[in-house]
Amino acid sequence: MVERWNAAVGPADEVWHLGDVAKTPDPGGIEMLLGRLHGTKHLLIGNNDPPATLAAAGWTSVAHYAEIVVDGTALVLGHYPFRTWNGMGRTMGRGAINLHGHSHGRLGRMTRQYDVGVDVRDFRPVTLSELRADRRRTSTAGTRA
User: Fold this and answer.
1) Strand partners, 74
2) H helix count then E strand count, the chain
3) pLDDT surpasses 50 at 144
4) Domain that holds residue 88
5) In this predicted structure, what is the pLDDT of residue 141?
6) What CATH number did the domain enclosing 16 receive?
7) Domain tally for the chain?
8) Quick one: which of 65, 62, 132 has its CA closest to 97?
9) If we measure between CA atoms, which residue out of 75, 74, 68, 78 comes closest to residue 101?
10) pTM (global) more than 0.85
11) Are 97 and 76 in contact (CB under 8 A)?
12) Is residue 41 part of a domain?
């Protein structure tokens, strides 16, 4: 997974990890892992992240929730998927997008919501443009993203 991460992420890229990094109680192991991964890393806490993961050096930020803007698109980020989220109801297709982990591809698809867990994304981080392209491909094929 380190190789896949580093193939997708450059040293100057910003990455938001949406939780469940590692269950190990050893902060040294987490810090070694984070040191091998490219990019500026933010953690949004998952249900399987022990205190050692949260306290490990290598995170730029650690939180439960974040709202950011990428390429002019509002994103609502968290480990858990939401049924509703801030800005989702904006008109003209410009509503905020919810990115989440936790569900391992088991939830039905919702408009402007994406499961970005590595187990459903080829075990690597993905960009917003990749998510949108994947959704367009699967929408025209009549399958689920």
Assistant:
1) 69
2) 4, 7
3) no
4) 2-139
5) 52
6) 3.60.21.10
7) 1
8) 132
9) 78
10) yes
11) yes
12) yes
Report d(CA 12, CA 17) in Å as an integer: 16
Token pair in block for residue 48: 């399987």
| Residue-wise pLDDT tens digits, 75-115 | 999 999 999 999 998 755 578 999 999 988 788 888 889 99
Question: Looking at the domain assignment, is residue 99 inside a domain?
Answer: yes
Q: Considering the domain boundaries, does residue 144 fall inside one? A: no
Asked whether residue 145 is assigned to any structural domain, the reply reads: no
Q: What is the mean pLDDT of the chain?
A: 89
For residue 97, the Cα-to-chain-centroid distance in whole angstroms is 12
Q: What pLDDT was estimated at residue 92? A: 55
DSSP string, 50-104: -HHHHH-TTEEEEESEEEEEETTEEEEEESS--SS-TTTT-STT---EEEE-SST
Q: What is the per-residue DSSP string for 4-20?
A: HHHHH--TT-EEEE-S-
Task: State residue 84's pLDDT score.
Answer: 92
Give me the long-range contacts of 57-61 (CB less than 8 A, separation at least 24): 57/31, 58/30, 58/31, 58/34, 59/34
